[in-house]
Amino acid sequence: MAESKVRQYVLLPFLLALVSALNAVLTLASLLPWFKKARHRFFLRVAEVQESNAMGKLWEEVGDVEYFWPRMKELWYSAWAEVQMVAEQGGRAPNPKLLRFSDRSECHLLDVASKGRPLIVNFGSCT
Predict the structure, then answer these.
(1) In whole angstroms, what separates CA 53 from the centre of its chain?
(2) Which of 26, 45, 52, 101 lies at a CB distance of 3.0 to 4.6 Å from 63, suitable for a disulfide?
(3) Is the pTM value of this prediction over 0.85?
(4) For the residues 16-39, what does the mean pLDDT come to?
(5) Are residue 59 and residue 29 in the same domain, yes or no?
(6) Cβ(100)–Cβ(108) under 8 Å?
(7) Which long-range contacts (CB under 8 A, 24 or more apart) does 54-62 make?
(8) For the chain, how many structural domains are there in total?
């Protein structure tokens, strides 16, 4: 475990540089008209809708210059959170905070578990 943590901390500056470069490329590319049209077609295809009115302003704002800094902060936070993740086979289960959809109250992941019903969680890239 210690070796993998050291490796993650060593790779963190490279990961931050990569997400910063990708954010800059996305922002600069959003200034090009052909990129905006391609992005619009991509969003329509992913959302499986036929008209752009259904997507609202979302497709226009992705990559927008005014969102450069908030997007940068979120990417850096995500990279830092990924370094902080600890999940090992046979180890303790992570117990992150969750937000309930019904009443917007906070709970922890293991609060959702109940006896006789297995709690199946897909950890994505953490596994």
Answers:
(1) 25
(2) 26
(3) no
(4) 82
(5) yes
(6) no
(7) 60/36, 62/26, 62/30
(8) 2
Q: Tokens 């199946």 correspond to what residue?
A: 120
Look at residue 79 in the predicted model and tell me its pLDDT: 82
> By residue range, what is the domain housing residue 51?
2-84
Average pLDDT over every residue of 27-55: 72
HEC assignment per residue over 65-118: HHHHHHHHHHHHHHHHHHHHCCCCCCCCCCCCEEECCCCCCEEEHHHCCECCEC
The tens digit of pLDDT for each residue in 83-127 reads 777 767 777 777 878 888 888 889 888 888 888 887 776 656 544
Specify whether 108 is located in the same domain as 51.
no
Cα–Cα distance list, 125 to 6, 64, 70, 86, 122 (Å): 18, 28, 24, 12, 9
